[in-house]
Amino acid sequence: MSPELDVAVIGAGVAGLTTAHELRRAGLEVRVFEEQPYVGGRMHSFRHDGYVLDEGAEQISERGYRATWELLTRLSVPDHHVPRIGKAIGVWRAGRAHAGVADPVALLSGAALSPRARLDLVRFLAWTALHHRGFDGDHPERTPAGPATVARFARRYHRDVHDYLLQPVAGCFFGWDTARSAAAPLISLMNDVGPVSGWRTYHDGMDLLARRLADGLDVALGTPVHEVVEDGDGVRLHGPGGTVTARAAVLCVPAPIAARLHGKAPEDEQAFLTACTFTPTLKVSCLLDRPLAPVSHKPLYALLTPDAVDDVLSGIIVDHAKHPGRAPAGKGLLTLMADPRRIPELRGTPDAETADRLVRAATRYIPGLDTARRRHFVHAFRHGLPEVTPEALHHRPRFMARPPRPVEYAGDWVMLRPASEAAVRSGALAASRVLSRLRPSPASRTPRPAVAAPRSDACETA
């Protein structure tokens, strides 16, 4: 029997949609299977009564997102649809917000660091500048930081560098436990994205890229896939609606789900799939009757609440400061990020109780929040962000050197970089690997993908 499709893509997040977009441009027949009734995955945005709620990712950057910007240009997304945020990030210490995180001004202002720690921040920045060529986002396992965890790496500096910089950044934006997650990817990402002054958002929700990619693609929403089986040179997909056959499949889902779907993955894939653990994320969107924000001498769009001062929250995003279109005129929108240490217990409680607990904690930083809240929504992802452990770094080279096969993978976890840029780059890489097996038909006038794929050994030999 002839396969029904050239390629089946499982997952309509940014990685899956990028993969499908590239393969469709190359002339292949592609269908995307998505369990949810919407596209975007962890970059989905929810709209309610004039508010735009980002359920997952919060921003991109002018730097370090080359493949994303190339894709936006190809999709004809104008620059003003990806505006600068233009506000600072603060960290809470000693009863107030200290602005300047991820900004050169921290060397002068301190950004919650003590004078002694500020000197060590200079040492840290000098060390990263000296070794910046060694931090390659495509090869996070090959860095001067080695396999050290964030906590272990930070021991060479004043304690404040960990407690009021590295831990709050890792905990709020990635949901990481610094005793488990590796320092190399964090340092590489901080180097790549540059100061917060160059950080941007999508003007109509963080799912803008996903929605634009989905236009023109064959996307089957509300269509789960329960198993993917290699069948000779092709694959079979099993789901509630029956079986679909294809010449290839790309699993664009978190690694634990990919491992479950492809239960008979080859041995050189299984070790990395097993090592790629994820941290859960949970946050509460608070729709306010007025715009509130933490008190600070500089306007903030994010306030980090370190483990050293808070065990309920990891941070607060001021969405109406991130972009005014996130809330109706005269209203406010805040996102309360749960501390990863509390998520397991919070996921088992009713949404109203979860929201009340986070609001009570946040009122410490934003007085009046309890009375300004008019409605809330709880967003939780069991597989929020790749954890990037030393074990995953160890197994990645063999995974990346595997030969192209009927079942491929894409997602930020493939790059061990918890960012949407990694999803785009992994999608381009997966497409190039598929095309090395399934050459486009002669009738296709479109060359292989133009989005920048990572410089990996697998890609170079494809």
Automatic annotation (TrEMBL):
Biased composition (Low complexity): 438-456
Ranges for domain Amine oxidase: 14-435
InterPro entries in the record: Amino_oxidase, FAD/NAD-bd_sf, Zeta_carotene_desat/Oxidored
Protein name: Amine oxidase domain-containing protein
Annotated region described as Disordered, given as residue ranges: 438-462
Entry GO MF terms: oxidoreductase activity
